[in-house]
Amino acid sequence: MNAHTAREPLPAGGRDAIGLGRTAHPGLDVRHGTLLSLEGIHVSFDGFRALTDLSLYLGVGELRCIIGPNGAGKTTLMDVITGKTRPDAGSAFFGETLDLTRMSECEIARAGIGRKFQKPTVFEALSVFENLELAQKADKGVWASLRARLSGEQRERIEETMITVGLEDDCRRPAGLLSHGQKQFLEIGMLLMQDPQLLLLDEPVAGMSDAETEFTAELFRGLARRHSLMVVEHDMGFVETIADRVTVLHQGRVLAEGSLAQVQADERVIEVYLGR
Fold this sequence. Notes:
CATH architecture of the largest domain: 3-Layer(aba) Sandwich
Shape: globular
CATH topology of the largest domain: Rossmann fold
Mean pLDDT: 86
Strand content: 15-25%
Largest sheet: 6 strands, mixed
C-alpha cells in the first residue's frame, strides 16, 4: 500500500467533501469525488520559498479560481501540477492513484491534465481546422497528421469543438489572422481535442474585449459539466461570474478559501490583496 492510500481520512471539508456530483472520465479512480489532491507542498528556488505547506483539493467537475497578488505562487502551483517543477516535499495526486511527483510532463498530459498559458500558442500559418486536427490524440508528426485521412468521427469531433469555442465560421481562416481572443479560444479548443479531465488556464481573459470575456465565462461554465477547471485570474468580475470556489494564495500559502463573497469578506485577503 502506498503512502497516499495509507493516509488517515481527511476531516469534513477535505477531499471527501468536495465532489460536485459529476462523473469523471472512465479509468480514473475518484472514489472520494476529488480529482486533484495536493498536500503539504513545499517548493524552494535558491532559498526562496515559492510554496509553503500548500494543500488544495479540487472536485470532479469543479470550476476553481486561484487569485492572489503577484508572487503569491500561482504559476509555481500550476508548474507542480503539470510536472514542470518537482516539490521539495509533499504529495500531489491525480485521482486516488496517479502520483504526479513521479510522472514526467508528457505522462501527466497524457493522463488528462491540459494547460493553457496566458499567451496563446497556435500554428499561425495553419487554418483553425488544421490546428484542431493537429491537436488530436495521435502519435504522428505535423505533416503526417495533416496528410492522414480523417475519419467521419474525427471530422465531426473537430466541427463540434469549433462550435464549442465559437470558431465555426472561421474554419478555414489562418490562425494568424484571428483576434487575440479568438486565438485564446482556438488554443482552448486544441486542449479540448486532447480530452483532458483537468484544464489549467492562466489569465484567460487578459486582453479580451467585453464580449469575448462574456463568451469565455459562458464557455467555462459549459465545460465544467464535463471537465474540472482551475483558472488563475485577476479580473474579479470574471471570477464572480464563473467560480464554484475561490482559493487565495499569498506568499506561497493558502490564505483563504471559499466562495468569492467569503474570501472578499476575509480581513486577511482585504489587507494583502483587495486593498480595501
